[in-house]
Amino acid sequence: MSGTRLSFVLVCALFLLTGCNETEQTTSDGRISLDYWVLFGGGDLGYMQDIVQDYNNSQDEVYVNIILQDFDDYYTKLVTSVAANRGPDIAVSHAAIVPELVNQGLTTPLNDLAEDVGLDFDSFYENLQEAMEIEGAYHAVPIDSHPFIMYINSDLADEANLLDEEGLPIIEETPEGFRQFFMDAMEVHPDKTSIAIPTNGHDVYRWWWMTYFQMGGTPIFSDDLTNPEITIDQEIAVEAAEYVLSFYGEIIPMHISDPYETFQSGNAFSLFTGVWGTGIWESADLPFVAVPFPQLFEEEAAQGGSHTLIIPIKEETTDERQRAKMEFIEYVSDNGLEWAEAGHIPSKPEIVESSEFQEMPYRSDYANIAPYIVYPDQTIYQSPAETDISRSLDEIMAGRLTPEQGIESMINDLEVTIR
């Protein structure tokens, strides 16, 4: 959603605020009461609820009310409620959305508050720290990174002799070797889907993004919040699309209706998606390994996002309440080990390097790519740009446009978007 579209939301969607009045500022026993909005679903929600409960039980001065909002209209409701001074005290935001919220003046700068409670932004992964800093100020605290990875059915891979002694896939780290790995799986399991991934949508976008940056692609936009230039490398963008396209039809069936169900039912050798699948497959008792994509080209790069916590602005607040909000945010970021149960990578290297995390199954197999995630550019146009890119990639993978035509169409759409 662009800055213009967010402004439109402010004017046209205030009806969503019905029933969103602020709760009391204190509880019946005198604790500061804070409303915390989240957009999580599935297993993620349960892990976050546990963290909030642990925080509430850890002290007797602050009580955090976790409030689940529907994902589909989460940001619309967040923007309209904050603009009307009825927003939450703390809220989850994807890192890619934070620049839009900052541009609308809806977030509190966190530098001074962080220093006050002892939260050090240098304690986060460097690429995450950079992603949080917008025009010289921090407006969000990252609680994780969630990269795009591979899930492989370990029983099927073992039958095809494609696992090493440690149970990890044997993949030659070249473009050709990566394709051959899945071709070898198809030879042994011709009745199985080799790679479960849709022909269109976000997972194709994620795969292309990672491939583009591994090939040495430049940022999509220049570093400017509201007036960026398009800096995408068109030639590399085409090459990345050509490589992803080469898997469709021969290795990837066209138009898989439900990749998740295909993998969970044991009918797929692999699935490409985000790390949120780890907790799902664990609970399903599915035999699998979870691994990052190998470095196939010149640069080590991965695709991923980050859940962050922000403090929306409020006209009337106190230093005591602001400090309480920041202390809770610090608590969540420090409890990355518990949040990692959902599959996410903690935002702090210290937690990832701990023996407790390294002993967790699956997570430690892909956590090493956290420093190499290429986060979206800090511009208010990231959300509509993602739509533009995905739409063009959909046309390419479906065979309606050649890679050259699709990328040219993508760049034309980006030009219109930032105009």
TrEMBL record:
PROSITE patterns recorded: PROKAR_LIPOPROTEIN (PS51257)
Source domain of life: Bacteria
Alphabetized Pfam families for the sequence: SBP_bac_8
InterPro entries in the record: Bact_solute-bd_prot1, SBP
Signal peptide residues on this chain, from the entry's feature table: none
Protein name per its UniProtKB record: Extracellular solute-binding protein
Organism of origin: Alkalicoccobacillus porphyridii
